[in-house]
Every structure is written in structure tokens, then in C-alpha cells.
Amino acid sequence: MLEVRLLGTFEVKYKKKVIGITSRPAQSLFAYLILSAGTSHRREKLAGLLWPDSLEETARDNLRHALWRMRKALEAASSTRFLHADDITIGFKESAEYWLDAVELEKLSENTSGNELMAVLSEYQGELLPGFYDDWVVLEREHLYSIFEHHMARLMSLLQDEKRWLDILDWGERWIKLGQKPEPAYRALMSAHAAKGDMSKVAVTYERCVKSLKELGFEPSEQTRALYARLKAGKETFEAGPTISVKEKRETRPKTNLPIPLTSFIGRATQIAALKELILNPNVRLVTLTGPGGVGKTRLSVQVAQETLDRFPDGAFFVSFADDTDSNQFVSRLAQSLEVREGGRPLLENVKDYLRDKQLLLILDNFEQLVSAAPTVAEPLLAAPQLKMIITSRIALQLQGEHEYPVPPLDLPQSTELTVEDLTGNESALLFVERGRASNPSFTLTKDNASAVGEICRHLDGLPLALELAAARVKLLPPQAILSRLDDRFKLLTGGARDLPSRQQTLRNTLEWSYSLLNEERKILYARLSVFVGGFTLEAAEAVCNAEGRFDILEGLSSLMNNSLVRQAEVDGEPRFGMLETVRAYALERLAESGEMDALRQAHAQYYGNIIINQAGWELYSANALHWLNWIEREIDNVRATLNWSVTTSENAEFGAWLAWSLIWFCYRRGYASEGRIWAERLLTSPIIQKSPPAHALVVIAYGMLSLWLGEQETGLAHLREALTIEQRLENEQMMAPCLLGNGVALINMGQDSAARPFLENAQALFKKFNMAYFHVFTTIHLGNVELGLGNPEKARAWQEQAYAEAQALNENWLLSFALNNLGEVARTQRQYDLARKYYEECETLLRDTGDAGDMARFAHTLGYIAQHEEDYRQAEIQFRESLTMFRRLGNRRGMAECMAGLAGLKARQGQAEWGAIMLSAAEMALKVTGGAWWPADRVEVEANQEIIRSALSEAEWAAAQKKGRAMNLEQALAFASQQ
Length: 980
What we know:
Elements: E1 2-5, E2 11-14, E3 17-18, H1 24-35, E4 41-42, H2 43-50, H3 56-77, E5 83-85, E6 89-92, E7 98-100, H4 101-107, H5 114-121, H6 135-161, H7 165-177, H8 183-195, H9 199-214, H10 222-233, H11 269-279, E8 286-290, H12 297-308, E9 316-320, H13 328-338, H14 347-355, E10 361-365, H15 374-377, E11 388-393, E12 402-406, H16 420-424, H17 427-439, H18 450-459, H19 464-471, H20 479-489, H21 502-516, H22 520-529, H23 538-545, H24 553-562, E13 567-571, E14 574-578, H25 581-594, H26 597-619, H27 625-634, H28 636-648, H29 653-662, H30 664-670, H31 673-684, H32 687-691, H33 693-709, H34 713-730, H35 733-749, H36 753-769, H37 773-789, H38 793-810, H39 813-829, H40 833-847, H41 853-869, H42 873-890, H43 893-909, H44 913-930, H45 936-952, H46 955-966, H47 970-977
Parallel strand pairs: 1-7, 8-11, 8-12, 9-10, 10-11
Antiparallel strand pairs: 1-2, 2-3, 4-6, 5-6, 13-14
């Protein structure tokens, strides 16, 4: 059967094999014929429809050529005759065996069920024939979208009638993602969130609706405003409905961090079809896209991932290694993208565990700098049986099972005497013209400039980056002038190192040509901006690159943007700038030649380092914490570059020590503890650090605290005691305080509450003396934890209430949430479950938007116990399993052990005592590996669970279950947990 997809793409297959109709006119003709299958069209009508601006004779010639190319492609794939053509008419045979996504959409009726609607509507991947601008396409596109929109609205209504809230969350977001800003989708989402009891998301969804409509110049309808008012006032309630969505039994569409392209994707139909077929082949695990810089490997990989996303239930993730030459950072970068943060063993093992059962697509971009390390850092990931990987690199990895796919340049015009019609379907010309229009809206392809445009494409070898740089000149120069400059400046196969690929030399020449058009000040600024990694703000550019005040930075950036050397995007309402990595690499060479490299790197490091050390590091312990957590996260690549500067230049090691100390709290709250400890470890080897007791103590504290959060309690405690000894010898009371606090926290984690108390009391006194209010509250909370661990709940409550009052005075949400959580723990140990729920839910509300995933996972776990005590066992299991999933994603062994213990007690209460005994024993072993002990509130639960299990089993059954559970490693225990 012929399978044709025109919605969101152009794809023709016969028996699952792609038919390459690569000419744009042939594609347009084929699409028109199949959309009107059964109709015979007169040739002159088709010629006039598809080439309205051409002379009649030229249009008919174009039609004959397009028909020939189309028939040739179809006949090469199949002996079936799909087309009827004679001297007068052309048509697609309605009797032919074919499937067309647009026809399936048009077949839908008012009686179609919700499940049938979802099956058909899932084929709608976007507008009809994206990138085609023929008048007939625009009309048909609007027609098909109106059908899609009507049935999407019907689907939303049906799903609401059937109380299928999770399916609404999936399909509502899918509809919005298509970019049409549909109000019915927002209304359905608000109802779904309300049915789930999440009123904060109801409010967020309404604000999204308001903002999206405002971009179109509209306000929400009365229907939308009225629904929100009813939901907000609690005047409209919904039944809970199913807890698992029909679509692959998951709540939302596959998760992804794929970058959102800012420009349209041009051409590559053949490559996309081939790569989709390759990556979806069950026997293919690793595909490496190879080719020179600027050929479009990254953009192609993202496009393929977007078009196959629904085939990967666990999502598609993009990890860029544009600036990484150190394979030690590979795992940290990968784990961060996958949200696998912490754990009590090597992070790579946590990543492998996370991927083991995932049906996931992973893109590793700009991997050429790590090719030599591929066998040790990339190949082990393929142990996960369902993982698929796309790697972009200038050279192949030469790994077993690797499928190399060389990415060619865009199609080039084949003749020298070119007309507008010759270029209409050519990929290189289409890209040049579209990007040229972005630079100069009045630019168009004409009979006068067609030949020059074609020659520009040929000179630039169809390299996308080179074409975009050239197209940016259309704002200032006509194509003929651009072409003449290329002849002067752009000598193919020259200008670069002789051992480089020829097209890389071409790209170098392209960049040199673009660079040569800048004035002297712009050249200097362009080179200096290359010191930034992962983007930069206007303020950063001003501070780092304009210390002498010689530039108008805003004007300079505007000029560089116009030259396609700098790109700009909006982040949180503020402009953020960056360079394509190839463009940045060229700029770095210019910077090195200028002799300013060392000075610029120092200015860059001091800019970011001073902000972190003097402002952000302290503000993390304030009401402004969320702003600075997000700021550091956004600037993480620049922060890494700053840390690298401090550890590779020994005279700056003390600066690095303060930097590592200042980042401790960020590493804890955003899950960078593994990477943070790597930097601390590198600093500890510096002779300067070893000879400077104050700096040495800072790094040792950082290493110790990060070790605690990685679950290595003994290592953490040893380092914190070493740091305390150093600070005592220095008589530095202000720095003794955090050392004392760290020692106390370590001992609490190890279950040694009595030993922890004097450390915490001494720390609290010093924090009070130096007016360090945030730390004073934090210590007060831990003194409450000590009392709870010692069996004194009333004393514990008093400490937590004191901490809460102090946190209110500071107006710091995280401290408030921490105190509320611990008040909930006290109430839970006293079996005051209604009160505990109140505290936990208040805590969750405060932290919902902070990005502190570990805390959110713990709240899901504690709410599981509350549901269990309320005998809502179904909800309890949902909470425990949700928490387990989150802890597993974070690589948090302690959290996973706590959730497994919760599941053990829950199942025992439901008559599965033997399973509960095995699970509890496995959970205890998982916790033991971390060197930790149960938190006091969980200790009460575990003891109660043991009593229930022991009373239901004989001594022999109990012993056998313990033996089986204790023999399990973490992976086996998690697999066992998933069986129920």
C-alpha cells in the first residue's frame, strides 16, 4: 500500500520504504493530485495553478518536467500505476490502494467515538505541507485545519463527559503545541486540573490562555472567564475519573527537552525519511550523523526527533557538548538533561539504571571532542535494551553497532543558466530565499536575480550555515553583489588547514568573508564575545567585553545579529544572546590571534565569579533564592567555564575555593551535587589550596556537604570534621558555624541524634552571634529533628514552630516549607494525620514552582503515608509510586528505600505480608548502603510495618522473606517493587 503523509511533513512510502520525490514542484503536483484523487485535471489548469506567474508555455514545460520526476520515483518503487495521464488530463487513481492522512481526517463524522478520534487525530502532526506557499495549499490547509479544530473540540467535550482527565491533559497540550492558541483546549485543561484537585495549575493554565490570546490581540471569551470564575470559587466540581490515560497509560505526551527551532525547517525530505526509517528499525540502536561543521547535523537530528517523538513513550532528550573536551563532565551533563541527579554511587551507574527500562531517544550533539572517550562514556549506555541514540559528530565514533549517516549539503542547482522555475523546488535556493526574506521582507526571487542566487548556492556548496550568512547580506546587497564578493573573498578549498575536509575549508572561507565585512570595532567585539559559553546577557557583554567603554554594545550586538554571527532569544522576558558553535569557534581563533584571550577569560571569570561569590551565593539564603537559583541554572555553562579557569590557573585557586563554597546550596537544591564535588575534588589537588588553610577549609566543607547529599555519610562527616579542625585552629568562629552544622546534619543522617545535638547547639549560638538568620533557622529545624529522633515530639514541635516563626520574618519560602514539612513529621509520629496533611500540603504549595525536585518527591512519599492511614490505599500506592519514580529519576537511593518501605507496609495491610516482608528487607539493605538511617517519622512507620508483617507470618516465613529481600541489589529491588 502507498502511505502518504502531508500533515506536518511530506512523506511518501510504499511497503514501508520511502519514495524520494525530492523536487518541490513534483511534490506540490503529487500532493494536489492525491488530495483530489478520482478527479482528472486538465493540463493547462494544473500548469496555471502551480506556476501562476509563468508564461503559459513555460508553465506547461514545468508541468511535464514535474510529472516526469514524480512518475519516475513512483515507478521505481512499485509496478502499480497510481496515476492517469494523457495528452489532456492528469489524475490520481481513486481505485489505487493508498492511505492518506488528510483523507482519514476528512472521513471523521459526528458519531466517531473518543478513542477513534484520538487514533485519527494523532496523525495530524502539523499544518498541511509546511513550507509550501501556493494559493491552493493555503486554502486546503485552512480547510483541513478547520476540520481538525472541530474534531479536537469534539474530543475535548467527549473526554470531559467521560471524566478522562489524564487524556485531556495529553490532548489539550498537544492541541496548544500546534500553535493555534485554542480556547477550548485551555478550558478543558482547567477542568482537568480542577478534577485532579490542583487549583494552582488551573490558575496557571488560565494565565497561559490570557497571555497567548493577548499575543493575537484578543481577550478570553466570556465562556472561558466564567469557567475560571466558577472553578476558582469552587462552584464547579468534577468526578475523579480514570487515573491512567488511554494513550500508552501515561499522563502526558513524551517528555522532552528538545530545543525549539526559531526558524522553519527547509528541505531534507529524503534524509528525514531515511533517518526515521533507520532510527525506528528495531535492529538499529545508534545512528551517528557525520559531516562538516555547518552542514546542519544538529537541526536535522532535532527534526527527526520531533517527528518520531510519539514513538518513544519515555521521551526524547537533547544533550549538547559544544564546549566539553573533558570526558569527566560528560556524565554530569547527561545526567542533568535526564534529571538523574544524585545517588550513593558513581553517577554513570545511576544514569544506566535510569535508562535500563526506558524506551527513549537520546541525542548527543557536537560529540566530536569526546570521540576518543566514546567507548567508556557513550557505549555503556547502549546496555539499556530500548534506548536509541542519535549522535552528531564531524567524525564517526567507530563503535560496534554504529550506523553512520553522512549528512550531505542541501541540493544544488544543476545547471548554470537558471530561471525562477529551476530554483522553485531546490533546497539551497529555498533556504537562501526564505532567510533572505527574513533579513529583507521585500526580497523575492526574480528572473533577474535567479541566476545569481543559483550561483551563490553552488559557490557555498549548499551548506546551510554558509547560505544563512550570505542571505543576511540581502539586507544590504543584491544577490549579484553578494556573488561578486564571493568570487573575490571565497576561494573554495583554500584558506583552511590542508588536512581539513574541503567543505570545512569552505565554511572557514564563508566565515572569513562575513568577518571581513565588519568594521574594526565589530571585529574586536565579535572575537571577544566568543569567551561566553552557552549564551550571555547584554549586561554580561558590557562588563566583560567593554571594560574600556569603547563600544556601543547594543548597537554592536545588533550589527552582529544582522550578520548572522550572533543570535538572540527571549528568556523570562529578557533578551539573551549566543552564537552557533561553529561561528563561536571561528571567533575564538580571532580572539587567540588578538592576544586578548587570557585577559578576556579572566574578565569573564571575574564577572561571573564575583556575582556568585558576592551576591548570588548569599542571596540563595534569602527571599530572593528562586531568582538566583534560576540565574545560576541559566548561566551554568558560563559558571563551568569560570570554575575551569580557577582550577587550571593555580594562582586563581583561592578564587575557585570561594566559588565552590558559594555554589554548595545551588548544587543541593538543583541536583548538581555530583558535578559540584568533582570541582571541589579538583580544587583540593591545587598546591595553592593546600598551602592556604582558609581556602582549604572552604573546599573541604564543600566536599563534605556534597558528599552528605550524595548519600556518602562517613565521607561527608570525615571532611566536615577536618574542616572544623582547620577553622578552630584559625579561630575563625564565623566559618566554624557551618562546619558545626554540617557535622550535626551528618550525625542525624546516620541516626546518631544525641551526638548531633551539641554540634547543632554550638552552631546555633554562633549563627546568632553573627546575625546569620537563615542558618539560624536551618539549625533550629535540625534541633527539632534531633528531639523527634530522641522520642520527644513536643520539644520537637516547639523547635519547629520557632523555626517557622523565624522563617516567616525572613519571608523565605524554602525555609518555611522545610519547617512545615517537619511540623508535619511531628504530627505524623503522633498520629495526627489531618494536621500532618495540612502541613504537608502547605509545604508543597510553597515549593511547587521552585524546581526543587527532591523535596517534591519527598512530599509525595509523606502524603502516601497520610493516605494509607486514612485507609485510602489506592491513593497511597499512587503517591508512593509517583515518589519512587521521582527519586529514581534523581538517583536518590535513600528516597527510593523510603518509598519501597512505604509500599511494603501498604501491601502488608492489604493481605500481602510475604511480599511486604521481602520488600521491606530489600529497602533496609538499600538504605544501609547509603550509610544512613530512617528519619524519625519514617522509623515509626517502618516499626509499625514490621509488627503487621511479623504478626501475619511464621518465624520461618519471616526468615525466608528477609533472606530473599536482603539478597537483592537496588536494581532487583526496584524490579520486584514494579511487580505489584
